[in-house]
């Protein structure tokens, strides 16, 4: 997966892949507030681009069929969007975005089943 455009790696692509700022920060072993700061410019700093690209290109340790995981069924099982957000360690707004997008990011599903 190539995510660099004109030498810039889009922040949104990394977040789509990892599922949240916190997940990206954990993958890079950084404080989430450091990664949050990247959101303003919308790009990954040069220092971290190769690390993020490498992480995004590695095959998953566990093959998960993301399409088989229904966000609505998880919400029904856990009772609320807030409970699902706590399960995935994201904000409720992130869960709502996943619902609008139509799927849960692969990294988040791996966290759930792994």
Overview of the molecule:
The protein is mainly alpha-helical and 114 residues long. A two-stranded antiparallel sheet has the order 1-2. It has 8 helices and 2 strands, in the order ββαααααααα. It starts with a strand and ends with a helix.
Mean of all residue-level pLDDT scores:
79
- The CATH architecture of the largest domain can be named as Orthogonal Bundle
Q: How are the strands of the biggest sheet laid out side by side?
A: 1-2
| Major β-sheet annotation | 2 strands, antiparallel
What is the CATH superfamily of the largest domain? lambda repressor-like DNA-binding domains
CATH topology of the largest domain: 434 Repressor (Amino-terminal Domain)
Poorly predicted spans? 1-6, 61-66
The coarse overall form would be: elongated
Radius of gyration: 14 Å
Summarize the SSE layout with pairings.
Elements: E1 4-5, E2 8-9, H1 11-18, H2 21-28, H3 32-38, H4 46-57, H5 71-78, H6 81-88, H7 92-101, H8 106-113
Antiparallel strand pairs: 1-2
Helix pairs in contact: 2-3, 6-7
Short description:
This protein has 114 residues and is mostly helical. It has helices at 11-18, 21-28, 32-38, 46-57, 71-78, 81-88, 92-101, 106-113, and strands spanning 4-5, 8-9.
What attributes does this structure have?
114 residues; mainly alpha; 434 Repressor (Amino-terminal Domain); 2 domains; two-stranded antiparallel ribbon; 8 helices; elongated; disordered N terminus
């Amino acid at each position: 997966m190539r995510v660099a455009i004109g030498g810039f790696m889009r922040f949104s692509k990394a977040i789509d892949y990892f599922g949240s700022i916190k997940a990206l920060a954990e993958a890079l072993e950084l404080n989430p507030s450091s990664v949050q700061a990247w959101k303003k410019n919308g790009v990954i700093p040069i220092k971290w681009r190769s690390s993020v690209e490498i992480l995004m290109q590695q095959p998953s340790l566990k093959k998960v069929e993301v399409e088989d995981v229904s966000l609505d069924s998880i919400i029904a099982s856990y009772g609320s969007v807030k409970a699902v957000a706590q399960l995935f360690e994201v904000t409720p707004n992130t869960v709502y975005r996943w619902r609008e997008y139509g799927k849960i990011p692969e990294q988040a599903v791996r966290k759930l089943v792994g």
